[in-house]
């Protein structure tokens, strides 16, 4: 981040003195900040500012910030928006180090508010003064007993390692309340983000020694690359970033004439971006709570193979179903483990995973503990999960039975080298007489809800498995495509720039020429401006041929009847030419038509799409999936941010639905995966190098032939940035 001053947020989170403009004992944000500082026991200087009062909550109150006789580190402002620009001028004159604007009435309200927000942004950025807000609840430093926070501090909050960062005020309150027993470090309500945004705060939290896990509620991000840089920094510091990104639905997605733009929905780009930096994505608040809890409390070794233990066949069946849904690997017990379990379990119980110990397990804590030790001692078991309910209000005898299980878990947890995780099958309130010892444990996670728990476990396993790989990939540069690529990139770039002086949209003919310069072959073709030329071209190329309208302005030629396939004779070519021209002029009369393209009918193969799009938050993004007629039908969308790292082209293909066919399914394939990987790398390198000029690219279809036969472009479209050219 070039604006390094935005990372220095010490005066916001750990100010030596605080002025509260608009302070009073009446209900309001300024009153709440002052009250919180008083009850927290903040040790720095506190200076209420309000010309109406001489004293507020026992503190001397000043008419203006200029009247405070000492330096002021941070300022919280809780007055109506119309007064704030002039108050900020006074703050600048006072040489304050940071500002938090709590009140709304800015860009979120109307155009006038937007103008005012730009005004205050300009003032503060000119002076390099970091600001939280406006329209924010402020910031809370739980570990440092300070903050500019206008919501109520959760009662009984523990100091700990969880930082909460949210773009919604109500979500800040809800999440902070939910995590208060885990232990909080920082709570941040970003507000309108006029000066500081999510990326700035994440950079700070990555360096914050108190913060161990970062929970983010995100509506959107303006500078996606900065946020990802901060996430990489957090990953390198060993701090998981867990994000709940709202806005997954297709509503509001901009549909363009390009497949790539329509398919690369906003949420899918976020998924691709976050996977590149190890960010853990969750779908709802319940899943987020269980995931954060697990990441905070799982402190022992764990791998990917899980052993489950339960006291019910129904619980075991539910676990089995959901484990399959989440692709969670169930450990295969060794024969020694099976034999040992058979010796101690009653005959009516079977040795399976999940292991159902029924009433045998709940009757005696020592017996249950023996089962846990046996499972944990199996070399095929990486972590142990205990399924145990204890709904609030259960009877005394049930409390007695379930408490034995809890005692057994607590008894063995310290002696075993592997992580134990306990979860309830439902998310309702638990019986504290049974479960409170687990809730209070710092190193034994207790999770609520089978689905939420297993989702969290899978995320923890994947994060652990991918962490080292992601850290290594951060040190790598852009993937270098095949030999001679630098010269090819230069030639293709020169041709693109030449076209850009005339066109904003490049049709099939121009697009293929660029790709040919990159070293990606196209099917043989020739342009024709009359039926006679089309026949002559077909005779030269050799039958069968295909005819397509030659127009940079007609993008979906098949839909308009402007494509004719498998033409076998001069008569068919002549007739197809006239039909195509007529259809184009009738259905898109404003389009400029240069004639037709006569193409050799390509041999059989498998069609894929390679696309480029420019995401407004994250920049150049590459798309891969099934192509041709299957592009929308299969919804086979796989995205990666540019530049590609080593091996990302292969990973992109392997994650697609198309891969099962491409690698060889039954009587088809294997196809030329190596040629496909090279084509993806070349397009990716070109897209990154020409990112300022390219807006979208569709290579659809790219036909992949049998192994050793290569690939060919059958159609391509390019959309360039801006301008008024045709």
Features:
Rossmann fold, 31 strands, alpha/beta, seven-stranded mixed β-sheet, 726 residues, seven-stranded antiparallel β-sheet, single chain, D-amino Acid Aminotransferase, Chain A, domain 1, 4 domains
The radius of gyration over CA amounts to 31 Å
Task: Kindly report the CATH topology of the largest domain.
Answer: Rossmann fold
**Parts with pLDDT < 50 across at least 5 consecutive residues:** 251-264
Helix content: 25-40%
**Name of the CATH class of the largest domain:** Alpha Beta
Mean pLDDT: 92
Percent of sequence in beta strands = 15-25%
The strands making up the biggest β-sheet line up spatially as 9-8-11-10-12-13-14
The shape, in one word, is: flat
Q: How would a crystallographer describe the biggest sheet?
A: 7 strands, mixed
Q: Structural class per helix/strand content?
A: alpha/beta
* CATH level-four homologous superfamily name of the largest domain: NAD(P)-binding Rossmann-like Domain
Instruction: Give a count of the beta strands, DSSP E runs of length 2 or more.
Output: 31
Distance between the termini: 37 Å
Supply the number of helical segments. 24
- What is the domain total for the residues? 4
CATH architecture of the largest domain: 3-Layer(aba) Sandwich
Set out the fold topology.
Blueprint: H1 10-13, E1 17-21, H2 29-40, E2 45-49, E3 55-56, E4 59-60, E5 74-77, H3 84-94, E6 98-101, H4 111-126, E7 131-132, E8 138-141, E9 146-149, E10 159-166, H5 169-178, E11 184-189, H6 198-207, E12 213-218, H7 224-236, E13 241-245, H8 259-263, H9 266-275, E14 280-282, H10 285-297, E15 305-310, H11 313-325, E16 329-330, H12 335-344, E17 355-356, H13 358-363, H14 365-376, E18 383-387, H15 396-413, E19 420-424, H16 432-440, E20 446-448, H17 450-473, H18 485-500, E21 505-506, H19 508-518, E22 525-528, H20 531-541, E23 545-549, E24 563-567, H21 570-587, E25 596-600, E26 606-615, E27 619-626, E28 638-641, H22 648-654, H23 659-662, H24 673-689, E29 694-704, E30 711-713, E31 716-720
Parallel strand pairs: 1-2, 1-5, 5-6, 6-7, 10-11, 10-12, 12-13, 13-14, 15-16, 15-17, 15-18, 18-19, 19-20
Antiparallel strand pairs: 3-4, 8-9, 8-11, 21-31, 22-25, 23-24, 23-25, 26-27, 26-29, 27-28, 29-30, 29-31
Helix pairs in contact: 3-4, 6-7, 10-17, 12-14, 14-15, 15-16, 18-19, 18-24, 20-21
């Amino acid at each position: 981040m070039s604006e390094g001053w935005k990372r220095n947020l010490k005066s916001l989170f750990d100010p030596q003195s605080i002025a509260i403009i608009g302070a009073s004992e009446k209900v309001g944000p300024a009153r709440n900040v002052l009250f919180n500082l008083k009850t927290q026991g903040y040790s720095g200087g506190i200076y209420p500012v309000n010309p109406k009062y001489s004293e507020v909550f026992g503190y001397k109150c000043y008419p203006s910030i200029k009247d405070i006789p000492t330096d002021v580190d941070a300022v919280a402002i809780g007055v109506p928006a119309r007064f704030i620009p002039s108050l900020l001028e006074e703050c600048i004159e006072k040489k304050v180090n940071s500002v938090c604007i709590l009140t709304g009435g800015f860009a979120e309200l109307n155009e006038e508010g937007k103008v005012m927000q730009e005004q205050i942004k300009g003032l503060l950025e000119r002076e390099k003064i970091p600001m939280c807000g406006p329209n924010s609840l402020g910031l809370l430093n739980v570990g440092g007993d300070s903050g500019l926070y206008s919501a109520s501090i959760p009662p009984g909050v523990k100091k700990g390692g969880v930082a909460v960062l949210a773009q919604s005020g109500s979500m800040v309150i809800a999440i902070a309340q939910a995590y208060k027993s885990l232990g909080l470090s920082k709570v941040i309500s970003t507000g309108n983000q006029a000066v500081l945004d999510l990326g700035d705060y994440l950079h700070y939290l990555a360096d914050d020694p108190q913060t161990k896990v970062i929970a983010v509620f995100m509506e959107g991000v303006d500078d996606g690359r900065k946020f990802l840089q901060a996430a990489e920094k957090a990953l390198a510091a060993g701090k998981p970033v867990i994000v709940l990104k709202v806005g997954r639905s297709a509503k509001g997605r901009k549909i363009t004439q390009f497949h790539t733009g329509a398919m690369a929905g906003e949420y899918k780009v976020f998924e691709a971006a976050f996977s590149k930096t190890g960010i853990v994505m969750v779908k709802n608040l319940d899943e987020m709570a269980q995931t954060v809890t697990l990441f905070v409390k799982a402190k022992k070794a764990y791998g990917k193979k899980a052993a489950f233990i339960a006291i019910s066949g129904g619980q075991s069946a539910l676990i089995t179903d959901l484990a399959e849904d989440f692709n969670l690997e169930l450990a295969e017990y060794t024969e020694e483990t099976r034999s040992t379990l058979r010796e101690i379990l009653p005959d009516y119980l079977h040795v399976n995973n999940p292991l159902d110990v029924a009433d045998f397990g709940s009757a005696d804590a020592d017996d249950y503990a023996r089962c846990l030790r046996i499972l944990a001692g199996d070399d095929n078991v990486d972590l142990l999960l205990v399924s145990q309910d204890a709904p609030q209000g259960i009877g005394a005898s049930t409390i007695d039975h379930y408490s034995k299980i809890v005692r057994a878990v607590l008894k063995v947890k310290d002696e075993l080298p592997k992580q134990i995780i306990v979860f309830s099958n439902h998310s309702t309130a638990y019986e504290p007489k049974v479960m409170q010892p687990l809730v209070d444990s710092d190193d034994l996670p207790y999770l609520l809800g089978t689905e939420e728990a297993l989702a969290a476990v899978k995320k923890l396993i994947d994060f652990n498995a991918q962490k080292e790989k992601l850290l290594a990939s951060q040190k790598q540069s852009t993937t270098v495509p095949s030999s001679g690529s630098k010269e090819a990139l230069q030639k293709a770039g020169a041709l693109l720039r030449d076209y850009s002086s005339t066109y904003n949209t490049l049709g099939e003919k121009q697009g293929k020429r660029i790709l040919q310069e990159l070293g990606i072959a196209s099917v043989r073709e020739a342009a024709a401006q009359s039926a006679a030329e089309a026949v002559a071209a077909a005779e030269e190329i050799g039958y069968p041929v295909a005819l397509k309208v030659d127009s940079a302005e007609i993008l979906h030629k098949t839909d308009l009847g402007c494509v004719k396939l498998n033409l076998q004779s001069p008569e068919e070519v002549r007739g197809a030419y006239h039909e195509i021209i007529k259809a184009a002029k009738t259905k898109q009369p404003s389009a400029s038509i240069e004639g037709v393209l006569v193409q050799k009918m390509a041999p059989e193969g498998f069609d894929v799409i390679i696309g480029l799009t420019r995401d407004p938050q994250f920049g150049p993004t590459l798309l891969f999936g099934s192509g041709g007629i299957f592009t929308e039908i299969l919804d086979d969308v796989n995205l990666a941010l540019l530049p590609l790292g080593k091996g990302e082209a292969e990973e992109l293909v392997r994650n697609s639905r198309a891969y099962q066919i491409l690698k060889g399914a039954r009587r088809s394939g294997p196809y030329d995966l190596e040629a496909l990987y090279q084509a993806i790398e070349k397009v990716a390198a070109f897209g990154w190098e020409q990112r300022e000029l390219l807006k979208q690219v569709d290579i659809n279809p790219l036909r992949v032939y049998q192994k050793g036969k290569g690939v060919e472009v059958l159609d391509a479209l390019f959309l360039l940035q801006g301008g008024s050219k045709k």
